[in-house]
Amino acid sequence: MGESQFHILKTRRFLPLFVTVLLGAANDNVFKNALLILILFTLGREVPMEEAVLVTLASSIFILPFFIFSATAGQLADKYEKSRMIRWIKLAEVVIMGAGVAALQFGDVYWLLTVLFFMGVQSSFFGPLKYSILPTLLRKNELIGGNAFVEAGTFLAILVGTIVGGLTAGWENGVNIVAAIVFGLAVIGWICSYGIPEAAAPQPELRISYNIVTQTYRIIRRIRADRPVYRSILGISWFWLVGITLLTQFPNLAKSNFNADHELITFLMVVATVGISIGSMFCNGLLKGEISAKYAPAAAFGMSVFMADLWFASPEGPGAATVTLGMFLEAPENWRVIADLLGVSICGGIFAVPLYAMMQTLSDEKERSQVVAGNNILNALFMAVGSVVAGMILDAGYSVPDLFLIVAALNLGVVYYMQRLRRELRSSPAAD
């Protein structure tokens, strides 16, 4: 991975967008995780609803807008100049976080959940813009690098936001600290968005359809007609299904199989998130700017191998004593678990990055934002279905390692699927 990729971090074509994306991802996760901690330990007692139900409701509330608004967001991103739209959306984030600050001060759960919903709305409108603008700002041989930086940076921002939000919410005066952080990040992100270069509207004559059901169906039908694009999007959606399953169940694995304390759970989350970032950057170096799916089958196979080995490496149940991070690291057999978590995450990063680049380059420029919107809809659908199925498997009495083994087996089908994508990409004129 040479200077040819890192130099884009120094350019106005990429850096302002990159920082804007990272600040937005961090802000979402600071607020979401602070809210979850507050629900579990303080605010949840004040409403006639189980804390676990409230936590599940909060997660669903954030994802719901992606189903409702993505189709409209994709059309708007194709009709209007993109950098101006990003500035308006980041300004909306400032307003939403202002409402969030007030909700935090009053400690009203329903108000906070309403703010969380509007954060999801804001993110659903930002998503099609941030991915569809990249091919406009970057050269084709820079697109793998740009997507690698965005994916690696986003996961690190999610990690930092998760840790900061979760920790500060439990401090004395933590609510005030969280309020200052989320509002400050929103303002800084809005200011940074003014550095994003202009990106002309690809389809200014487009007539916006506000019929959500019809337009969502039209977008999905449109991307299904282009098989390399559709296969890329299904691959991305599967990556998010596996990713959300692993990131959600790592804490459960640590608690149910190792009797881990909070520090160890956080450490395992760090390992997984850093692994995805390493994989994203490693993919950048492997492909050297070439937009290709040639490593995707191997990466998918690697994901299955490491997930399956987690089943073998995990103990059947926790011991009597709580396991601290130091105790965990002192046991040689636990380093195999760390290697598996790191391995599946690195393979995930290698798997996902070229699929994003292919979705961007193979889609029609005039409809690129709508294609990205369709990707967001399918991503949200896969994550929702994956979470429900994972819950059903665990509720049926299977353990978390059993769940990983099942996902590993299903993931083997993706290896064949990625081979099909490689062949279709080689025969696609848009890939030239």
Question: Can you walk me through this structure?
Answer:
There is one protein chain. The chain has 432 residues and is mainly alpha-helical. It folds into two domains: 210 residues, Up-down Bundle (Growth Hormone, Chain: A), CATH 1.20.1250.20; 214 residues, MFS general substrate transporter like domains (Growth Hormone, Chain: A), CATH 1.20.1250.20. The protein is 78% helix and 0% strand. It is globular, with a radius of gyration of 21 Å. The two termini are 23 Å apart.
What is the name of the CATH class of the largest domain? Mainly Alpha
User: What is the overall pLDDT average?
Assistant: 83
| Ends distance | 23 Å
User: CATH homologous superfamily of the largest domain?
Assistant: MFS general substrate transporter like domains
Q: Report Rg.
A: 21 Å
The major sheet is characterized as:
none
> What order do the helices and strands follow?
HHHHHHHHHHHHHHHH
Jot down its keywords.
single chain, about 425 residues, mainly alpha, Growth Hormone, Chain: A, 2 domains, 16 helices
Give a short synopsis of this structure.
The protein is mainly α.
Describe the secondary-structure layout.
Elements: H1 3-6, H2 15-41, H3 51-79, H4 82-106, H5 109-132, H6 134-137, H7 143-168, H8 174-193, H9 212-225, H10 227-258, H11 262-287, H12 296-313, H13 325-330, H14 334-362, H15 368-395, H16 400-426
Helix pairs in contact: 2-3, 2-5, 2-7, 2-8, 3-5, 3-9, 3-15, 4-5, 4-8, 5-15, 7-8, 7-11, 7-14, 9-15, 10-11, 10-14, 10-15, 10-16, 11-14, 12-14, 12-16
